[in-house]
Write the structure tokens for this entry.
Amino acid sequence: MTNTKKKVVLLLVEGSCEEVLLYNRLRSLFEQHNIRFHIQHGDILYDLDRPEEPIKSVIGNAVNEFMIKSKFRPEDVFCVLHIIDMDGCFIPEDAIVIDDTQKELTLYHEDRITVPHEKQKQQIAARNMDRSTNINIMKALDKIIAGEIDYRMYYFSRNLEHVLFKEPNPEKVRKFPEVERFIEQLEIPIEDFLQGSMPLVNGADSYKESWEKISERTASLQKYSNVPLLFEFVKLRSGFQSP
């Protein structure tokens, strides 16, 4: 079967590290699908250049952009899986703390974000409000593009590198090679590794519960990921039979 006859599983991600981490495993596990990544090269949930545009339109436009460029129609797409970094966006404003000795504009900790001055505190508070509002809208959806395509949103918290390496504030230039090295050396399926960062849920509605957990006070600064549920979702929707 050629890729043109396969339904597309589209992963909407912030950067290339997610593709390095997940592509080969998804492709080998779901051979009946065409696994594609649409990299945003930034935070699609918060952009000062489009503050008034509804987030459903922003995400929908990103998916439409991919389909137009790749010459796909909505019926060619099996599902859209959106992976984001949490970046501590659900923390209360009192967990954004000024440290006037700090040289960096923003540093992330397990229970707070520190900034060097009031202006940056207000900037992070505004960003967090916008991002958390947009996340709450998108995580409640199960369809996108006029209800034609299945949609789910998943997270790394506080970001991908935090989940993989426990790095609180990763350096941008080191991200890609470190993720490449990690996946080359990993001896178990990536979804099994990530299972160790899944929030504790009782299984009644794991997806909903995983979002409730990450929304609690400072949980969005801690090391969690519900990406294992992404694999379960595609398996379920595909009628996947375990050996």
